[in-house]
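Anyone able to model this chain together with zinc ion?
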Amino acid sequence: MRTICIGLLFCLLTGPAVFGQSGPGTNDLKIITRQEWQAKEPVAKMKPHELKFITIHHTATRQKPGVSVAVKLQHLQAFSQREDTLAGGKKKPIWPDVPYHFYVTCDGEIGEGRDIRYVGDTNTEYDPTGHILVTLEGNFEIEEPTKEQMVAAKKLIAWLAAKYQIPPERIKAHKDYAQTACPGKKLYERLGEFRKEK
Ligand SMILES: [Zn+2]
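re: yes, here you go
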């Protein structure tokens, strides 16, 4: 859990406001809320933004089947909210909260990350303002997204695109904006699948 999309991202979120009446449940979409995974409060102020893009990441960590999204997000939040060293030796500062707005596990579970109303964090050179950051668990330079994971991610992205009126051409990957391998070639080559289901 130490290399979150390195190169990367450091993209960032909070609450129940995300899930209104058009939310999960309408198309079989289930999102584990911050309350459900017992998220801690953000430790610093975050910047509000207007949502215009959906941007895909990978965690750059190996998939761990059988571990709940709650545990994964608790670990990610602990890592996010402390200073640490990234792969490659680069120092990471304390972030207010987890960098991504949504986290999709290899078992197809979806967790709410940082409050979507606030800008995520990134360690690369692009401004994530306006970007909804969705990360899929895995290092897709060397492993494949699972079937369950792709199904869940497609539902999530279709719901987000409809809710925030984000056109297909604004659904892209981290590497389309910054110098990074994220989200890994085995996921990047399948990005088109996220633009179809609208
Ligand atoms: Zn990324």
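The two ends are 32 Å apart (CA to CA).
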